[in-house]
Design goal:
The termini are far apart. It is globular and about 65 Å long. The longest helix is centred in the C-terminal third of the chain and has 37 residues, at 304-340. By secondary structure, it is mainly alpha-helical. The chain has helices at 12-23, 26-38, 42-70, 74-77, 88-120, 129-140, 145-163, 165-192, 197-205, 214-227, 234-239, 248-276, 287-299, 304-340, 345-365, 380-407, 410-417, 428-450. The protein binds tryptophan (TRP). The site of tryptophan has 16 residues, from helix 1, helix 2, helix 10 and helix 14.
Length: 454
């Protein structure tokens, strides 16, 4: 496929919303609250914010620069900024990571569809806490139903990717992101108006440093990379569809701010509601699927209609957030397969989705019939989450920082960030310093600490 046939985002807003759509996802509404809950609240959030600022942002900008310069898929883009051709390994690793994330992400995203359905038919009404836990267990370990949800979810993802960059990804992101902002605000207001909501706010904003260990840092860094869609060529692929007058530094700040705001706002939906009915916030991955529906029922028990709308809005929000993110994962893989194997986008997207469906089925089964089958003590679902968020993404981020900071052509990099010298970028020096020194050492230090080296 030659370069002129590649898709392109039609407007600046569309480009930012697409990138923000990739960043805002289950990572913000599902993963962030449970990581925060199980790592002690505000102290975790503080470390998370530092990770975003000092490790994440420079790498976002580096990915943007590589992508827009290359105007090609993630693997090839990493050969076009100078340095050895071996750096395309970053892109290959990214594509592999993309397959792994999409597979387990699709399973959790499928659950959101089931919950949209259940809230739609008012299936939560009148249930108590034990019932919610039992129902979720039963659903997630069912051999068939979650797979049907996974299938439908991947079908939606694939359909939008097949429609193309402008008609599919950009249009989808514009629609879903605007709805998502509105939903989030409505839900935050409802949640904060509950009795004793302030206990949840306090949990979010009052740090308790006694809970901080080395593992907290790894969790916060993993969450930062995961939430920004970083370290696997996702933002790089999207940036390859950016226009040449797009200001990359501004875009990087916009995407990181939108992503962080939505994560904190999700915390403001979930914790006040949980504290209001006296439920512990450290329930882990099941927080959003077991704790919350119960919270919605209890908190608004006097107002069944509010409780119905609250649940439906919340799970719709979750499903849309997941969809704009999974689209971006599939796009990385699709652009790579279609451009490198010279096949049509449609077939590349379909083939990749089928492969993810197979891997996803393994993840889903690992929570039920295959529960006893473990690798390093983890089932497929947990293994994929651990491998990607805690190893492959920070590892990819490290390589990107080293490549762009030390080996890529300096002039090309400066030209990309300053649009050929036409925009002033006062923070350029800070960016380069963070990229060359702070990001690689920070990531490495957190890794080594976890391996017990210090
Ligand atoms: N950032 C998304 C979220 O918060 C998930 C995601 C999309 C992602 N694309 C990615 C994570 C690429 C890592 C890499 O849910």
């Amino acid at each position: 496929m030659n370069k002129t046939e590649r898709g392109r985002f039609g407007s600046k807003l569309g480009a930012i919303l697409a990138a923000a759509g990739s960043a805002v996802g289950l990572g913000n509404v599902w993963r962030f609250p449970y990581e925060t809950g199980s790592n002690g609240g505000a102290a975790f959030i503080l470390i998370y914010l530092l990770c975003i600022l000092f490790l994440g942002l420079p790498v976002v900008l580096a990915e943007f620069a590589v992508g827009r310069h290359g105007k090609t898929n993630a693997a090839r883009a990493f050969t076009l900024m100078g340095g050895s051709r071996h750096w395309r390994l970053i892109g290959f690793l990214g594509v592999l990571t993309g397959f792994l994330i999409l597979s387990y992400y699709g399973v959790a995203a499928g659950w959101t569809l089931e919950y949209v359905f259940q809230s739609g038919i008012n299936g939560f009404a009148g249930k108590g806490p034990e019932q919610f836990a039992a129902d979720f267990q039963q659903f997630a370990s069912d051999p068939l139903r979650p797979m049907l949800c996974l299938f439908i979810f991947l079908l939606l993802t694939c359909g939008i990717v097949v429609l193309g960059v402008q008609k599919g990804i950009e249009r989808g992101a514009k629609m879903m992101m605007s709805l998502l902002f509105v939903f989030v605000l409505i839900l935050v207001v409802c949640s904060l108006s509950l009795p004793n909501a302030m206990a949840g706010v306090e949990f979010l904003f009052k740090p308790d440093f006694s809970k901080v260990t080395g593992a907290t840092f790894l969790a916060a860094m993993g969450q930062a990379f995961f939430s920004l869609s970083l370290g696997m060529g996702c933002l790089c692929t999207y940036a390859s569809y950016f226009r040449s007058d797009e200001k990359l530094m501004n875009d990087a700040f916009s995407v990181a701010s939108i992503d962080t705001c939505i994560a904190i706002l999700s915390g403001l939906i979930i914790f006040p509601a949980a504290f209001s009915v006296g439920i512990s916030p450290d329930a882990g991955p099941s927080l959003v699927f077991i704790t919350l529906p119960n919270v919605f029922q209890q908190a608004f028990s006097a107002l069944p209609l509010v409780s119905y709308c609250f649940s439906l809005l919340f799970y719709l929000l979750l499903a849309m957030a997941a969809l704009t993110s999974s689209i971006s994962m599939l796009e990385v893989v699709t652009a790579f397969v279609s451009e490198e194997l010279q096949i049509r986008r449609r077939w590349a997207a379909l083939g990749s989705s089928l492969f993810c469906l197979l891997l996803g089925i393994c993840c889903s089964l690992s929570l039920g019939p295959w529960a006893d089958y473990k690798i390093w003590g983890m089932g497929f679902f947990d293994l994929f989450d651990f491998l990607t968020a805690k190893i492959l993404l920070p590892g990819g981020g490290f390589l990107i920082a080293v490549y762009v900071g030390w080996f890529a052509d300096k002039k090309i990099l400066r030209d990309e960030i300053t649009n050929g010298g036409t925009v002033a970028v006062p923070l350029y020096g800070v960016f380069r310093f963070l990229l060359r020194y702070v990001a690689p050492t920070g990531i490495l230090a957190i890794f080594l600490d976890q391996m017990g080296v210090f």
